[in-house]
Design goal:
heterotrimer; A mainly alpha (about 290); B alpha/beta (about 240); C mainly alpha (about 325); A: about 290 residues; mainly alpha; ABC transporter involved in vitamin B12 uptake, BtuC; two-stranded antiparallel ribbon; 11 helices; 2 strands; about 75% helix; C: about 325 residues; two-stranded antiparallel sheet; about 0% strand; globular
Chain lengths: ~290, ~240, ~325
Amino acid sequence: MDPTLVGQGLLSGFLFGGVYSLMAVGLTLIFGVMRVVNFAHGDMMVWGMYLAWLLSVRAGIDPYLGFVVCAGALFLLGLVIQRGFVERIVDAPHEMQILLMLGVALVLENAALVAFGPDPARVRSPLSQGTVWIGPLFVDVARLLTFGLAMVLTAALWLFLTRTELGRSMRAAADNPYGARVIGADVRRVYAAAFGVGAACVGAAGALVSPILPFQPASGLGLSVTSFNIVIIGGMGSLPGAFVGGILVSVAESMGAVFLSPSMKELVSFGLLIAILLFRPAGLFGRTAS
Amino acid sequence: MSLLEVSGLRKRFGGLLAVGGLDLSMAEGEMLGLIGPNGAGKTTVFNLLSGFLVPDDGEIRFAGRLLAGLKPHEICRLGLARTFQIVRPFPQLSVLDNVKIATLARHPAMPIALEAARAVVERVGLGTRARELAGGLTLADRKRLELARALGTEPALLLLDEVMAGLNATEIDAMVHLVGAINADGVSVLLIEHNMRAVMSLSHRIVVLSFGEKIASGTPREVAADRRVIEAYLGEEYVHPAQA
Amino acid sequence: MSLVKLLVLLAVAMLAALPWVVGSYLVTVMIFIFFYAYLGQAWNIVGGYAGQLSAGHAAFVGIGGYASALLSMRLGLSPWIGMWIGGVLAAALGAVIGYLGFRFGLRGFYFVLLTVAFAEICRVIALNVDAVGGALGLYITFTGNPRQFQFQDNRAYYYVALVLMLAATAVVREIERRRFGAYLTAIRQDESACEALGVDTLRVKMLAMILSSFLTGLGGTFYAYYLFSLQPNAVFGIPLSVEIVIRPIVGGAGTVMGPLLGSFILSPLAELSRTYLAQSGWTGVHLIVYGLLLIAVVLFLPQGAYPALRRLARRRA
């Protein structure tokens, strides 16, 4: 095996990991604060991608600027879903919550299908044309920019969670099994904000990925599964875990693509999920889900 | 032959030694009280006996059989039944159907299990509430239901975990009466309780646990007078009725 | 004879007479209703009564269908026999999934993920292994020979589907009356309490999973020999799993009538949207409706339509 190829794969995987981390952090934030598993996570990301596509095609806005709008739009969607639906079943058995989010996933995925059609779409950014050489390896400028912006967003999120009162309330709720009581009076606001921020993360991630990879409504499931993979490996509810897990999984997938055929990649991904489910449900950093 | 023989029972949770080398024995027909401050390891002992936890060390012998490695349902089938400290009724089933789940263990045929359940429900005094959903019962009735279910499995030994907790004086009297009657019918009982009046009046013998260790055992009167027990748990104020 | 028994017999008689009274299109819709009611009822055993949500039941349809189709195409074995082999193979996968899930204590969302992962693995394998048809899938030549589970007349399929639906319903009805059913219902509410009462919860859940996957696997043969083609994405994919799951949930999971009611409500809806909206990029609308229905059911009728109707009927009486 050509070491350059392996190195290329490692670098590519590492850079793409930035997006995976952002995606996973969003999911784990929602779970950590509210103990809700967002089955629609991948489908929300796909909407982030399509919104970026719309902005690019209809308004000529580059996705590397438009991602802010995508994040904002998904934030609002998250708020609506939380306030409109999730909040009402906060005391219901877990099965109800799973079914609810599955319903949301179905609606989102098929609304995208109806709105945009089944064929793969792609966003053109002038930046996705360039390549840069790092030693013997080359990398797309687009991937570098995606990675950089994803890191900036993750850092911004970290600041939000550590420096602002709302953010600290969220972390308190996530760290503590008596989360709601720890926060005190304004539980609803914290929950809604958490869902919104989580959705915003994945919306931004979608926008940032749109210039790099083709996407279609059906991509939602695969992205959801990857998100779950990452979050379970890193530990449900653990933000550092999601971050590290995102990079790990991305590199692993990249290595998988280098050494195995593309069709095997999916097999590895699902096989990995099963293995993780059976042997490490607590994850590297986290505690078990209730 | 003694019904229950526990020797060297040990269980550790991380750094905490919940139960440290406990020896315990019970004869058939006996009512043994297990008392001690909170965190003493009493419920842990129940969990170890009923198979919900695996001991780190030690032996549990019930009716001559070693219980090592047996699952909770197997231990129940052998004749050792338990209640939970925080009662766990099946909320969407009626009182009768709740107990029916228990009697099905001994009577796989529905009609017979139902009849047996009816009898148990009458026996614990829930006859008038047989058709009510368990989720809507008062605490006292839920405690009775919990007891009824364990009884439905026709145990030789019944582990009752704080079955009086949360009840008022009248309800406690009724429960004491019921437990006594059950024991009188031949079911051996191992009783965790904080209500001293109840434990002292019901038990033939008492074992006192503190920080996972047995610090005293004997008749209620002996235990009530024991210096170590008074210091660790009872306090100076407690006076056993026989000493008053 | 009790009133209920009389009504049931009347309903069955009406359904039996229906194909001779209505047109071919309606017969097709009814086949659709019956078949998905059958699959939903099979799912109901493990998803409704045992409360173990599986979102990967399509895998069992796929295995059952592929097995009998391949056995027929390669070995000339009649699908009437291959059907049972397909069922057993599906049950074997069900046993594996069940054992891994239950033994490793996977509940709720983790169990759902496990079932999805296995279904997707099956799909990817079927898609990529040319020996079982690969991406093109399997096509069954039409002969119209009843010995090969094929019929010239739509009405024959109607009766097969009707018998399947009634048989599955009878199985579930029988389960409900027996100890197995009582245990399932109790396990759904509190597993640990069940263990303390002498219930071997692992064994009971495994039985439910095996029975459910076996019956679903049988359905795979019907699917193959009614549609005459097996496409990996269609027969192993999430959309089929959604179709299987949504009827019992909307109709009432954990009840005998739930999957039937759900299918009678949803199948015509799906069929209508498929017929009238499937052209011009409106595919997927019925799935949006499914999603909205799921949300609505969870928020307003968590036990499903049938229990709600029953309560309504009691109040009126």
